[in-house]
Design a protein that fits this description.
Peroxidase, domain 1, binds protoporphyrin IX containing FE, lactoperoxidase activity, two-stranded antiparallel ribbon, binds 2-acetamido-2-deoxy-beta-D-glucopyranose, about 5% strand, signal, Peroxidase, domain 2
């Protein structure tokens, strides 16, 4: 008898308590216009600045890989207490004003209903489609976290090896194929020269000669820490050209180039480079899965009123 109760608890009650109950259309009755509002604000901003796709993709990644997708990346520091966004890895994450703008419109439509964590996931989805990438459904119902600390940020650095990067991704439940697919997000966006300094200088590091010359020239101006695009071919289009570029030793970040050099990841790179349709499908699977990492649901966390501060 007792065993039966325990079994019932284990198989039925506990999984609900752990709460992997995100679902597509979570706001369909509580805030029916939520997804449309997000889309409208993202589209309006995208028309003026196509680089928001890159900003949002990176923000989504940095959010999900620290404490799960709980909008902890959005919290501003307090005096004597630095939040996630202050870490060196986070220093250049951008798009915070866009999230604020979306949140403001949503609060007017439905008070304290749509989480900041869901806003990041939905806005990322919309911006990917606007840049020519796939359209996909995003399960929602995330809640916003109550902790954001610079000390918890342990994100991969650009010089990391494929196997060390995989240790981090694997610890979040992602496969090698999913990792290589997610790094395909580097098909859009930029890097600051400070992240590629040692790679440019290292003559023995595999790099296309023309690219090295170009990077030397652009990154020569030290004072301002200039930026260069990550995908030299189609930097504003969400496509699979990134993989073809790294096969030609034209990866800009060291980790990007490593994907095409490591024998295990190279297989995935070759297949994604050859098939753009398959890249789109696989990216959807991988980014939706990333969006579920350690989410808060149900009564956990809160729905922040201002994405930058905890409701006190
Ligand atoms: C091993 C994993 C990864 C490493 C080491 C890495 C590293 C970096 C670095 C150093 C930059 C340059 C940032 C700057 O200078 O502003 C960057 C940019 C970017 N990353 Fe990653 N990244 C990784 C994985 C990912 C993933 C999984 C995604 C999304 C799914 C992503 C999306 C982006 C985007 C879109 C940009 C361009 C940002 C912009 O234009 O502002 N990255 N990444
Ligand atoms: C401040 O510190 C506490 C831990 O002492 C932490 O839970 C909180 O999220 C921190 N961050 C901010 C920005 O308040
Ligand atoms: C330069 O690149 C080579 C090849 O990847 C690597 O073995 C070496 O450790 C690098 N040297 C420095 C100083 O980073
Ligand atoms: C833009 C931003 O938040 N920059 C901060 C990044 O982190 C350093 C400390 O690690 C701060 O000094 C910057 O102000």
């Amino acid at each position: 008898m007792q065993t039966t109760i325990l079994l019932i608890l284990f198989f039925f009650v506990l999984p609900l308590a752990v709460g992997d109950d995100l679902r597509v259309g979570f706001y369909s009755s509580s805030c029916p216009r939520a997804e449309m509002i997000v889309h409208q604000v993202v589209e309006r901003n995208f028309i003026q600045d196509g680089s928001i796709t890159a900003a949002l993709l990176r923000m989504h990644f940095h959010d999900c890989f620290v404490r799960g997708c709980d909008a902890s990346i959005l919290i501003d520091s307090k005096k004597g207490n630095q939040s996630e966004k202050e870490s060196v890895a986070n220093r250049t994450v951008r798009g915070f004003n866009l999230i604020d703008e979306i949140k403001k419109v949503l609060e007017n439509a439905c008070l304290a209903t749509v989480s900041c964590a869901d806003i990041i996931a939905l806005a990322t989805r919309d911006s990917v489609a606007l840049a020519g990438g796939p359209s996909y459904n995003v399960p929602t119902g995330r809640r916003d976290g109550l902790v954001s600390s610079i000390n918890e940020v342990k994100l991969p650095t650009p010089e990391i090896s494929v196997s060390d990067a995989f240790k981090i991704f694997n610890s979040k439940g992602m496969t090698m194929e999913e990792m290589v697919t997610l790094l395909g997000a580097h098909t859009v966006g930029i890097t600051h020269c400070s992240f590629i300094e040692s790679r440019i200088k290292n003559e023995s590091f595999s790099m296309d000669g023309d690219l090295r010359n170009k990077l030397f020239e652009v990154c020569g101006i030290k004072e301002r820490d200039p930026t260069v695009v990550l995908d030299q071919k189609t930097p504003f289009v969400f496509d699979n050209e990134f993989y073809n570029e790294i096969l030609l030793r034209r990866g800009v970040l060291s980790i990007d180039q490593n994907l095409a050099l490591d024998s295990i990841s190279k297989e995935v790179v070759t297949s994604l480079a050859a098939n753009g349709v398959s890249f789109r499908e696989k990216f959807v699977g991988a980014v939706v899965k990333m969006g579920k990492i350690d989410v808060l649901t149900g009564n956990e966390g809160e729905i922040r009123k201002n994405c930058r501060v905890f409701n006190s």
